[in-house]
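Why show two proteins at once? Because comparison is the fastest way to build intuition. When a single record is shown, students tend to memorize it. When two are placed side by side, the eye starts asking what differs. So, the first record is below.
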Amino acid sequence: GSDVDILVKFSEPIGWEVVDLKEYLESLLGKSVDLVTVNALKPQLKEKILAEVEYT
């Protein structure tokens, strides 16, 4: 697991740049980061997670 889970949504395909984003956020926060898309959420957890999302 990670210390920080971030739900992400991209307006266009991002490809391998997602790895750069993950590494950048980890260096910025000093913690392990998981980037997750809505489609990757487990169905049994999706509704609960989406109810807790903080949009910034």
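Second record. Ask yourself what differs from the first in the token line.
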Amino acid sequence: MKTNVPPGPFYIDDLYNTRYQGDLEVEVIEASGKTSRFTVPYSSVPDSVRPGNWHYSLAFGRVRQYYDIENRFFEGTFQHGVNNTITLNLGSRIAQRYQAWLAGGVWATGMGAFGLNATWSNARAEHNDRQQGWRAELSYSKTFTTGTNLVLAAYRYSTNGFRDLQDVLGVRREAKTGIDYYSDTLHQRNRLSATVSQPLGTAWHA
């Protein structure tokens, strides 16, 4: 990228990077022809979208391991960058006698990204009874200039009626085939997870 700036102190705030972290090599060529170079390390906020941009994904397929029952599904997710601080999230997952809808957002700060999403589900599951409920998810993530990525996520299943599609299909298969279905998430109310990752660099690749 090349840009002209006025004499004196300056800043550039419209760079589009394709990685979460790295180094910016800056070369300044003055009107006199004098050249200076310096490096600026940077880290971007995970899960956030630049202002005015949209990120979306659409998927249609079948859930693995559940081919002996109706297992086709459709899934869509959308993210919109409102400004440099706020990103809005929307999503849906639809299958036979199952719907789940998600809404939430990401708040980007200099200390990292704070996310809050709420998901409501409606399903026919155990004994073909209707199960409805919602789940709230609170998360924190930060990528450091060293490449280290930290993710903390606390999930709260606030009602017994919330169901993931995986659990719904497992219960339906058990009812049809008699194969026992075991799940740690079927009646789970709380969950806390932490992930730390660090790229090892090209020297570790074959």
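One difference worth noting in the second protein: Residues 164 and 176 are 19 Å apart (CA to CA).
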